[in-house]
Specification:
By secondary structure, the chain is mainly alpha-helical. Among the domains are: 62 residues, Rubrerythrin, domain 2; 189 residues, Citrate Synthase, domain 1; 36 residues, no CATH class. It contains 20 helices and six strands. The chain has a three-stranded antiparallel sheet with strand order 1-2-3. Strands 4-5-6 form a three-stranded antiparallel sheet. Strand 1 and strand 2 form a beta hairpin. It is globular. The structure holds coenzyme A.
C-alpha cells in the first residue's frame, strides 16, 4: 500500500517578502509536484500580528494533499497522478476507489480482496432495517436520511468508532470497505421505503453498480437486469465523482476529522455539506431548470437572462476551480448519447435542451468573460434520469461516488504526523463595549400588545410569560 508519510513542507528556496508596518518579512514558498505554488504564512500572525482574510477560501490552501490534482485553467483532473480520461476509459468505480484511498492501483490480488470485502459488507445490520419501517416519514429527503444513517451506522461497529485515533486507524480498512458498500445499500433502501416498495437485498454475484440497480429496481417477483451500458454509465458517473480535492464537502470531512472525530461522523458531515444547491444539490437543480424550460417551451433565454441579471444562477454552470471545460462534463456529455440510445430514447428532450442551452450560454459574452462552462452536474442528471432514477436521489448518487474521496481525505488527516485541528480565525465586525441593561430598564416596545395576546391564550407558559419577571 502507498505511503502516508508527511508531505515536504517547503519548495526550493523561493521566498515571498511582505512589507507590513514599515518592516519586511520573508515567508517560504511551498511548491507542489505539479508546480503550483503557495506562500506558507503559518508564522504570519505570531510574527506580525496580522491574519489573512479570504472569504470563501478561493486563495487559501488548507492542506497539502497527495490525492487529487486539478488544473482549472487547462481543465485537467488526475486521481493519484492518473488523468481522469484514462481512468474513465479503463477503470471501474471500485478500482478507482482503491486507488484514491490507498494511493496505488491494486495488484490483482488486492483488487480481488477489496472487491470481496466490499461485497461482503453489502447487507445492513438487521436492527438498522427498522429505520425504514416508519422511523422516517415518506416525505423525508434522501440526503437527510443518508447523513443520519451513515452516522448511526457507527453505533453498530463500536470497535471502529472509538474516537481514539490509533484504534480507529487499526480498523480503517474494514471501515472503508463497509462504508463504500453500505452507503449504496442505504441509498437503495431509502428509495424503496419512500416509494412503499419492499426492501431488496444485495446479491453476491453482482458488481457494485449492478447491485445498486438491482436493489433499486428489482421486485420480489421480477429480477431487474440492467443493460451493460446502463451499468457502465452509472459506474462512470460514480467514478467521475470519486474525488475533487478541497471542495466544500471534502473540506468539511477534513475539518470534522481534524477534531479527532471518527470516519463515520466525518463522512456523515460531508453528506450534509454536499446537499446544498451550490454543491452536490446542483444536479437536481439542473433537471428542475431543464424541465421548466421544456414546460415553458422557452429556448432557455429566460434562465440565461435571469442569471446574467444576478437573479439566479444558471445551474450546472461555473466552477470555483475550472475556468475552462470541466473534463468530467466532457466525458459525461459523450456518455449521455450512448445511454439514451440504449434506453431506446432516440431523443431525450432534456438532453436536447441542455445541449442548446450550453451552446447559447457559451456564445454569450457574460459567460465567456467569466469563464463559465458546464460542470459535472450539467450532464450527470440527464443520464441519471434516463436510467430511471428519481430527481431527489441524484445528490445521493453524488454522495456514493464521493465516498472514496471522503474516506481518503479522512485517512490523510488521521495519519498526518502532528495533525492540527482546523480552526480558522476571523475579523470581528460586531459592536464594541455594548452595555448590559437590566430587562426592567429596557424599552417596553410592543410588550403590552404581546401581554394581552398571551393572556388571551391558554395553556402552558401563558401565565409565566405574562408576568415576565427578570
Ligand atoms: C460553482 C459556483 C458556486 C462557484 O462559485 P464561485 O467560484 O464563488 O464564483 P463566483 O460566485 O465568484 O462567480 C464569479 C462570477 O461569475 C458569475 N457566476 C458564477 N456562476 C454562475 C452561474 N452558474 N450563472 C450565472 N453567473 C454565474 C457570478 O455571478 C460572478 O459574477 P460577477 O463577477 O459579475 O459578480 C458557481 O459557479 C455556481 O453557483 N454555479 C451554479 C451551481 C452549480 O452548478 N454548482 C455545482 C458546482 S460543481
Amino acid at each position: 500500500m502507498a505511503d502516508t508519510k508527511d508531505i515536504p513542507s517547503s519548495g526550493e528556496g523561493e521566498i515571498a517578502t511582505f512589507q507590513l508596518g514599515g518592516k519586511s518579512y520573508d515567508f517560504p514558498v511551498v511548491i507542489g509536484t505539479e508546480g503550483e505554488k503557495g506562500i506558507d504564512i503559518s508564522s504570519l500572525r505570531s510574527r506580525t500580528g496580522y491574519i489573512t482574510l479570504d472569504e470563501g477560501f478561493a486563495n487559501t490552501g488548507s492542506c497539502q494533499s497527495k490525492i487529487t490534482y486539478i488544473d482549472g485553467e487547462k481543465g485537467r483532473l488526475c486521481y493519484r497522478g492518473i488523468p481522469i480520461e484514462v481512468m474513465a476509459e479503463n477503470s471501474t468505480f471500485i478500482e478507482t476507489a482503491y486507488l484514491i484511498i490507498y494511493g496505488d492501483l491494486p495488484t490483482r490480488r488486492q483488487m480481488s480482496d477489496f472487491s470481496q470485502k466490499v461485497l461482503r459488507n453489502a447487507n445492513l445490520h438487521e436492527a438498522m432495517l427498522h429505520f425504514f419501517e416508519g422511523a422516517f416519514p415518506f416525505t423525508a429527503h434522501p440526503m437527510s436520511i443518508l447523513s443520519s444513517l451513515l452516522n448511526s451506522l457507527g453505533c453498530y461497529y463500536p470497535n471502529m468508532v472509538t474516537n481514539d485515533r490509533e484504534k480507529d486507524l487499526e480498523s480503517f480498512d474494514d471501515a472503508a470497505a463497509l462504508l463504500l458498500s453500505k452507503v449504496r445499500t442505504i441509498a437503495a433502501m431509502t428509495y424503496r421505503m419512500k416509494n412503499g416498495l419492499p426492501l431488496i437485498y444485495p446479491k453476491k454475484d453482482l458488481g457494485y453498480s449492478q447491485n445498486f440497480l438491482h436493489m433499486m429496481f428489482s421486485e420480489p417477483y421480477h429480477e431487474y437486469y440492467p443493460h451493460d451500458d446502463v451499468t457502465k454509465a452509472l459506474d462512470l458517473i460514480l467514478l467521475l465523482h470519486s474525488d475533487h480535492e478541497q471542495n466544500c464537502s471534502t473540506s468539511t470531512v477534513r475539518m470534522v476529522a481534524s477534531s479527532g472525530a471518527n470516519l463515520f461522523a466525518s463522512v456523515s458531515a460531508g453528506v450534509c455539506a454536499l446537499w446544498g444547491p451550490l454543491h452536490g444539490g446542483a444536479n437536481m437543480a439542473v433537471i428542475k431548470m431543464l424541465e421548466e424550460i421544456y414546460r415553458d417551451g422557452d429556448d432557455g433565454t429566460r434562465f440565461i437572462e435571469a442569471a446574467k441579471g444576478g437573479k439566479t444562477r444558471l445551474m450546472g454552470f461555473g466552477h470555483r476551480i475550472y475556468k475552462s471545460y470541466d473534463p468530467r462534463a466532457k466525458i459525461l456529455s459523450e456518455a449521455a448519447d450512448k445511454v439514451f440510445h440504449v434506453m431506446r430514447k432516440k431523443k431525450d428532450p432534456l438532453l436536447e435542451i441542455a445541449k442548446r442551452l450550453e451552446e447559447k450560454a457559451r456564445s454569450d459574452p457574460y459567460f465567456i468573460e467569466r469563464n463559465l462552462y458546464p460542470n459535472v452536474d450539467f450532464y450527470s442528471g440527464t443520464i441519471l434520469k434516463s436510467i430511471g432514477l428519481p430527481t431527489d436521489m441524484f445528490t445521493v448518487l453524488f454522495a456514493i461516488g464521493r465516498m472514496p474521496g471522503w474516506i481518503a481525505h479522512w485517512r490523510e488527516v488521521a495519519t498526518k504526523p502532528k495533525s492540527k485541528i482546523i480552526r480558522p480565525r476571523q475579523i470581528y465586525q460586531g459592536e464594541v463595549n455594548k452595555p448590559y441593561i437590566k430587562v426592567r430598564n429596557r424599552d417596553a416596545g410592543d410588550l403590552q400588545d404581546y401581554e394581552s395576546d398571551v393572556s388571551k391564550s391558554e395553556g402552558y407558559g401563558a401565565a409565566e410569560n405574562a408576568s415576565f419577571k427578570a
